[in-house]
Write a structure and sequence with these properties.
single chain, 102 residues, alpha+beta, four-stranded antiparallel β-sheet, three-stranded antiparallel β-sheet, 1 helix, 7 strands, 21% helix
Length: 102
């Protein structure tokens, strides 16, 4: 698979306690891959608090963040299936897996 280096999305996926979140940031944005990771961590933390109350704020101290690349014309075919990202129904290759301290 070849990727147009100016026209793709960084897609970040994170999970904690049965909560799965995903975000996509276009490659043209500054620090797009970092922005995607930060956004998904924020989304998971917010969901943990919404689901478990404000006292849960410190529960998700470390979150796994998987990073993928999805071509521009395939972004509407993305599905989050648990922690796995599917593009057009097929598993997508992982670019990186990090643990982020919140």
């Amino acid at each position: 698979m070849t990727i147009d280096i100016d026209n793709f999305y960084w897609v970040a996926v994170s999970t904690w306690g049965g909560i799965y979140k995903m975000t996509a940031v276009h490659s043209s944005e500054d620090a797009a891959s970092i922005k995607a990771k930060d956004q998904v961590v924020e989304m998971v933390n917010k969901a943990v608090i919404e689901q478990n109350g404000q006292e849960a704020i410190g529960w998700a101290k470390f979150l796994p963040v998987a990073l993928y690349v999805v071509e521009y014309d395939e972004i509407n075919e993305v599905t989050l299936f648990g922690p796995q990202l599917l593009v057009r129904g097929q598993p997508t290759g992982l670019i990186s897996l990090d643990v982020i301290k919140t």
